[in-house]
Amino acid sequence: MQFVDEANIRVVAGRGGNGVASFRREKYIPFGGPNGGDGGDGGSIYLIADRNINTLIDFRYTRDYKAQNGQAGMGQQKTGRAGEDLIIPVPVGTIVRDLDTQEVIGDLVEHDQVLLVAKGGRHGLGNVHFKSSTNRTPRQCTPGEPGDERNLGLELSVLADVGLLGLPNAGKSSLITAVSAARPKVANYPFTTLYPNLGVVRVSPESSFVIADIPGLIEGASEGAGLGVQFLKHLSRTGLLLHVVDIAPIDDSDPVESVRVIEKELEKYSEALAGKERWLVLNKTDLLLEEDASELCNDIIEQLGWQGPVYAISAVNRTGTEALMKEIAYGLEQNRLKALEEGDEES
Question: CA 322, 323, 325 angle in degrees (round to 5)?
Answer without folding.
Answer: 65
